[in-house]
Design brief:
Structural class: mainly alpha
Order of helices and strands: HHHHHHHHHHHHHHHHHHH
Largest sheet: none
Number of helices: 19
Strand content: under 5%
Length: 377
C-alpha cells in the first residue's frame, strides 16, 4: 500500500498538517528512524537535505510575513475571480509543503496490503511514524544514537518549528479574513482606505487617464448594482475581486462623480476629497494676473508666488508637479509660467533652506488673494 501526498488546499488541510507537526517528539523521531532502517550515510544525506529545505522555508516564511502585513488591509487582491484564500496561501508555500510531504513519506511504514476498492489512500501526514501510531519507548532514548542521528533530530525540530509558524500564520490570516468579512465597520474602513490609496497614486492615475471612456461596464459594477446594500457588496467583494478590476471600478466611479459635478478627470485626481476647492482654484487661476507682485523676471510669473499657490491648493506632495501642469494648462493670462525646474528650486529654497512651513506658504498666498476671492466668489 502506498500513501497519498495529495493535500487539499483548504483550512482543514492546514489544521491536519499543523496537528501532525505538533505530534513530533523524540520518541516519534526514533520510531521514524527505526521504520526506515536508515544507515549513517542516509541519515547524513537526509540532514543535508533538511538544511536545503530549511533555507527555502526561511525565504518563504519571510515572504509570507511581508505579504501578511498588508493582505487584510487591502480590499482587492491580485487573483482571479475563483480566488480562494487557502489556495493562494498554499501556492505561496510550495517549498514548505513539498519538504514536509517528502520527509513524512520517508517515515511511513512499509505495507504491501492492498486497500479495499473505493477506499482512498491514507495521507502521509496521518500514517507517518512522526505523527501516527502507538509508541514503544526506547529504554535509552535519543542519547543512545550517534551524533548524526542527534543532529538530524535537531535539524528536523528547527524545520518543523518554522513550518508550524508558517502554516499557523496562514491559518490565522484565513480566520482573520473570515472575521473581517462579517465586520461591516472594518470593511467600510478597508474599502475607503483602499480607494484613497489608489486615488493618491500618481502612477496609477497616469495609466488610467484617457481610458475611462473606453472601459465598458465591468462585472463588478453589475454586482454592486444588484446587491441589496453597500454592506452586502463589501462582504461579497472583499478579497474576491482582482486589483485590476477594482482599479477600473474606483476610477470609473470617481470619474462619473466628477463629471456629474462638472470636474475633469485631472481635477478629480488632484482633489478627490475636496471638490469644492476646484471652483475656487479655477477662479483664482482665471484672475491670476490681478494678484499683487505676481510678475517676476522677463515677463514670467514669480516662482515664489507659484510655490505659495501650489501649497495653498493643498494637494499631496507627489501631485504637486501635476498641479503645476494643470495650472499651466488653465492659465490664460499675459505672463509666462515659470518652468517647473525653477519652481522646484524655489520650493526647495523656501522649505529646506529658509525653513518656511507648507502652512505658512499657503497662508501667505491666502493673504495675497483675500480680496480676490471675495470678488470672484
Amino acid at each position: 500500500m502506498t500513501f497519498s501526498t495529495i493535500v487539499e488546499k483548504d483550512k482543514t488541510a492546514l489544521e491536519q498538517i499543523i496537528g501532525a507537526l505538533n505530534q513530533f517528539e523524540k520518541e516519534r523521531f526514533i520510531a521514524g528512524i527505526q521504520a526506515g532502517r536508515y544507515t549513517t550515510y542516509q541519515i547524513e544525506q537526509t540532514s543535508e537535505m533538511v538544511h536545503v529545505y530549511q533555507s527555502k522555508m526561511n525565504m518563504e516564511a519571510r515572504a509570507l510575513v511581508k505579504f501578511s502585513e498588508t493582505f487584510i488591509s487591502e480590499f482587492a487582491t491580485d487573483n482571479n475571480k475563483c480566488f480562494e484564500t487557502a489556495e493562494y496561501y498554499f501556492n505561496r508555500i510550495r517549498s514548505t509543503l513539498g519538504s514536509l510531504k517528502r520527509l513524512f513519506k520517508k517515515t511511513c511504514p512499509t505495507s504491501r496490503k492492498a486497500l479495499p476498492k473505493g477506499v482512498q489512500k491514507p495521507s502521509v501526514f496521518d500514517r507517518s511514524a512522526l505523527s501516527y501510531g502507538a509508541l514503544e519507548m526506547d529504554a535509552f532514548g535519543l542519547a543512545s544514537y550517534d551524533t548524526a542521528v542527534q543532529n538530524l533530530y535537531e535539524d528536523l525540530e528547527t524545520l518543523f518549528t518554522t513550518a508550524t509558524n508558517v502554516l499557523g500564520l496562514c491559518h490565522q490570516m484565513i480566520e482573520k479574513e473570515e472575521l473581517i468579512r462579517q465586520d461591516v465597520v472594518q470593511l467600510r474602513s478597508i474599502y475607503s482606505d483602499s480607494c484613497d490609496n489608489l486615488m493618491s497614486s500618481v502612477r496609477e492615475f497616469g495609466l488610467f487617464i484617457g481610458t475611462v471612456n473606453t472601459i465598458s461596464k465591468s462585472e463588478l459594477q453589475e454586482r454592486k448594482r444588484n446587491a441589496r446594500s453597500m454592506d452586502e457588496f463589501l462582504k461579497h467583494e472583499y478579497h474576491n475581486v482582482p486589483k485590476k478590476e477594482f482599479k477600473k471600478y474606483v476610477w470609473l466611479e470617481a470619474s462619473r462623480q466628477a463629471q456629474n459635478e462638472g470636474l475633469t478627470d485631472e481635477e478629480m485626481f488632484l482633489w478627490p476629497d475636496n471638490h469644492d476647492k476646484v471652483v475656487i482654484v479655477r477662479n483664482v487661476i482665471d484672475s491670476f494676473d490681478m494678484i499683487d507682485y505676481v510678475e517676476g523676471y522677463d515677463g514670467k510669473i514669480d516662482s515664489t508666488v507659484l510655490v505659495e499657490f501650489i501649497k495653498w491648493c493643498d494637494v499631496d506632495k507627489q501631485k504637486e508637479r501635476r498641479l503645476y501642469e494643470y495650472f499651466c494648462s488653465m492659465y490664460k493670462g499675459k505672463y509666462i509660467p515659470t518652468g517647473w525646474s525653477a519652481v522646484s528650486k524655489s520650493r526647495r529654497e523656501l522649505t529646506k533652506v529658509q525653513k518656511i512651513s507648507n502652512e505658512d506658504l499657503a497662508q501667505a498666498f491666502a493673504r495675497r488673494i483675500s480680496g480676490l476671492i471675495q470678488k470672484t466668489a
